User: What shape does this take?
Amino acid sequence: MTQPGSQDEIIIKGIAASPGVVHGPAFVYQRNELEIPHYKLEETEIEAEFERFEQAMLETRAEITAVRNKVASNLGEGEARIFDAHLMVLEDSALIEEVTTEVRESRFNIEHCYNEVVQRYMAFFSSMEDDYLKERVTDIQDVSRRLLHNLIGLQNTDLGHMERNSIVVSTDLTPSDTANLDRHKFLGFITDTGGQTSHSVIMARSLQIPAVVSLHDATHKIRTGDMILVDGYDGIVVIHPTEERLFQFGKLASERQKLDALYRTSLDLPSESLDGTKLPLMSNIEGMDEFAQVDQVCADGVGLFRTEGLFLRHHGYPTEEQQFEEYDAVASSAMGRPVIFRTLDIGGDKIIDGPNQVADSSFMGFRAIRFCLETPDIFMVQLRAILRSSTHGNVKVMFPMISGLDELRRAKAMLEQAKTELKKEGKPFDDTMQVGAMIEIPSAALTIDLLAKEVDFLSLGTNDLIQYLMAVDRLNDRVAHLYEPAHPAVLRTLKQIFDQAHSAGVPVGVCGEIAGDPLFVSLLLGMGADSLSMASALLPELKYFLRKLHLKRAQGLVEAVLKLEDPNEVKARLQHFHEQVLGPVAVIAG
Assistant: This one.
């Protein structure tokens, strides 16, 4: 093994995926490329190919089920559901039908045809702009590799032979790879590819193991046995770290742990500023399996339940009972805290299989409320399920991508129709359930006075709002740098929305990325935000900072920032204010 400082130190930057700092020897894990047989079949051999395919499917199902049971035992049902998705990929009827058709038409062997179809599926998902969907390629890859191993008659390789106390370095890690890792043998992992929502990263967070992804060429720069340092907070990997670097990061890790512990001291205290101004801090989730985190951080409720997560997991349109079961579980678990269900937001970069699949992939095309209003049978099923869940909790519903009064009124009319149907059937629901609209489109932002008359609350979806205001696709690398929350146009628009909504007596929450950014908390408080909703992991720091803020100081900050012309000046001003409020803690936090 390489000793610290014996070779030149190399620093590479990736995406921070799972927090923590770890130091140890690298274990470079590269899967051997499969050689896929390719040969012609006689007509009489085709049925035998299908029998081989069916047998391989049975073997693969047994393997995935065994891994699922292992993960459920070690990590819990939430993480094990990843492999339920794998079983759905394995048994996807559309994919299987394509494979059998390919065999009959081409008369090539089953391994070749299966691989050809799978490659088309992976190319399709890789082309998606949505990170979540793009990373589902890993699931397809994992399942297809297992099945091909069984078809060809090879043993599946895993990480069982890894040295103890190692850091895994790989091009990517499939959920099966991660599930097979011995928790006592590895310290963390880094990958060339991947993103923050990949399943391997989700499992790393559950195991509380540091991870850095999207390093591009780590597998070419690192050899097994090289000593490396992984900083899962800032997304940094250091190869051959010096003694000085190790000391520096050891100190940093200790300080970060103390800081996290400090933030958590405020969790069971009220979400309010120093002068007693209440600002509920809520969680963004997309499934019941995430609710445990809501309780762990003492969130004031669920400010955004992304219902499309349920649809994506089903690879289609779940029934009313399936939706009701999920929504009702969340509403009941919230124990009176508000749960805001956003109705189905698909289209654009979120595609659901089925006869109603949306072909338009434009962010400004046939998506969200537009899709729902044009497919009333799907929309009605969801509205009924949400209404039924309202009897067991403080449930609210909000409609996404509302551009004006017509869409809002049509959506509300369908909600009333759902109520009428449920009343006739004798099924209970809360007739006073609050209704809201998301402000994500400039046309909505400019007609707050009209929309406010029709709703009980508004919710600011800042990700899309900023994207549309700036005419920037934030997922396009060539223009992503122009996506700027601190732009004067964005700040003025936010201020106008809060002012007009409050004039009409309607509360406004924020559920976009800036709601979880410590630098923007003071600004949003000063502008008059009525609640903030964010990823659960961000809430402890936000609450700690909020409780050190004073409303008048925050309002003064807003007044000063709105006079600035340059986004960089705005960010510098927010940073300075943040450091002033935190005091000595800011040195560690920075």
Q: What stands out?
A: Residues 43-152 form a domain with the Enzyme I; Chain A, domain 2 fold (CATH 1.10.274.10).
